[in-house]
Amino acid sequence: MLKSMTGFGRAAAETDGMLWTIEIASVNSRFLDVQARFPRSLAGAEFAIRKRVGERISRGKISVTVTWEALPGESGGARLNHSLAESYIKQIHELKSRHKLAGEITIDLVSGLPEIFSNPLDSGDKSGREEELLKALDQALAQLDLARSTEGKSLGADMVARVRAIQTQLSAMESEAAEYAQNLEARIKERVAKLFAEVAIDPQRLAQEAAMLAERADITEETVRLGVHLTEFAKVLAEGGQVGRRLNFLLQEMVRETNTIGSKTGELAVIQRVVLVKEELEKIREQAQNLE
Fold first, then answer.
1. How far apart are CA 19 and CA 76, in angstroms?
2. What is the rounded CA–CA span in Å between residue 94 and residue 180?
3. Is 270 exposed, middle or buried (0-12, 13-18, 19+ CB in 10 A)?
4. Domains of the chain, first to last
5. What pTM did the predictor assign?
6. Any residues with CB less than 8 A from the CB of 128 and at least 6 apart, and which?
7. What are the Cα distances from residue 203, in Å, to 154, 182, 185, 215?
8. Which residues pair with 21 in a beta bridge?
9. pLDDT digits over 79-107, tens only?
10. Half-sphere exposure of residue 13, counting CA atoms within 13 Å on the CB side?
């Protein structure tokens, strides 16, 4: 199965009165690059998140974003520890009474006491929270994988159609090139014979030189190699998997052979087909860069 490197996945988890949302977006990259953004209190889970992503994805720039909000009926942000505040106030009263101290117990005094307020992210069962987050991460990765597979299938179908179009052009190119080579050799003989009409020329030498010039314009070797690369390209697409780098290599070889064909031939019809093939190869290259 072919997979694109572009996709998006999203999932949510509920723990400790909070709703956690995980979003994963991926775009093209030569290598695997995982970037994670989440609350500082989850810094300990970064390694586990990166490891889980790396187990499912081999290539692409991956952005993992974790956000949270309080569930309805739950207090968001800082939480007041009522029992601790009451304990502080009670003990301050006892201290004031026992030592006959002056002064009032004010909100400024109480609110500044240690651990009166706590961050909800710092409380609760952190190990359980991370476990739930990783479950949500798996769900988001599954969505991402589905999106990448769907787009990969579409990209593959498009490239297969373009490969077939190039093969059609190649078949016509080979036929036209063979005829062109025969005509070229005959034209060379005719021109040389006219040029040296009054000079004795060895017919065998003339034939050898004409054949050599015609051979230099022969594109049979290049068209055969281009055909082999096209067949291999279609085979790799059919096999699927992580094919991006392999396809890019084959495309480089196909572009090289096509450029050589264009530089060797003087036949207008062949040159026009070379232009069409290069256009299709460029479109395939753009598509192949999106594959994992």
1. 11
2. 110
3. buried
4. 7-75+126-149 (3.30.230.10), 79-118 (no CATH), 151-288 (1.20.140)
5. 0.69
6. 15
7. 60, 18, 14, 18
8. 12, 67
9. 666 777 788 888 888 888 888 878 888 88
10. 19
